[in-house]
Design goal:
Helix content is 42%, strand content 19%. With 207 residues, it is an alpha+beta fold. Strands 5-1-2-3-4-8 form a 6-stranded antiparallel beta sheet. Helix 4 crosses helix 5.
């Protein structure tokens, strides 16, 4: 599915580059792994090639899908109908974990609208920045544009959406529960930057 040099999106971590494909023997059985380096922080993740679909590793969205992302950002609605910040946080985190650019766009739009209406919690502010970073990097690659140009465009669209929401009111709707893979996968964990062992995200291990 992927070859060395391909860019791919790993859920909750963002865009990475397939550095190489390695074979490893575990308990007498040979397995193949994609060695994925996350562009944002240089983290290296080992992903079994047989579990790509289960962990949600996917290709960058096509350029013809970019308008759909902007359409979502322009919609004056809140996708999560939850009164308390901790419940909203859990539901938005589930959306981010899907790795879908469209789900992430919903999170970014919702939090941007909310922050113009009320104070966000510390966790929500961090999540807003995470969603923005994930979306900017993927859209920049999909469009072949500079990240700073995409960031400015996103901010402009979101500001307009928030202004319309403030003036006309915000439609709220209940979102469908996100489907996050729970399949137990082969993994071994270690941090490439510090050399210390850490738990890895489901399905991949930090090499």
């Amino acid at each position: 599915m992927f070859k060395s040099g391909d860019k791919a999106v790993y859920p909750a971590h963002g865009v990475g580059v397939v550095e190489r494909i390695e074979k490893k023997e575990i308990a007498g059985t040979a397995y193949q792994f994609y060695i994925l380096r996350i562009i944002e922080n240089d983290m290296t993740i080992m992903i079994p090639t047989s579990n790509v679909e289960a962990v949600g590793l996917r290709r960058i969205i096509a350029s013809n899908q970019v308008p759909k992302v902007y359409k979502i950002l322009r919609q004056v609605e809140i996708s999560v109908d939850a009164a308390t910040w901790n419940r909203r946080y859990r539901e938005y985190m589930e959306k981010i974990k899907t790795g879908s650019a469209f789900e992430i766009a919903q999170v970014l739009r919702d939090l941007y609208i909310l922050k113009n209406d009320k104070d966000l919690s510390f966790g929500e502010r961090k999540m807003l920045e995470t969603a923005r970073t994930l979306l900017v990097k993927e859209l920049a690659i999909a469009k072949g544009s500079k990240e700073e140009d995409v960031a400015k465009q996103l901010d402009k669209v979101l500001l307009k959406t928030a202004e319309v929401a403030a003036a006309t009111g915000t439609k709220r709707r209940k979102s469908k529960p996100s489907s996050v893979p729970s399949k137990k996968l082969l993994s071994s964990s270690s941090s490439s930057s510090s050399g210390s062992s850490r738990p890895a995200a489901a399905g991949g291990s930090r090499a």
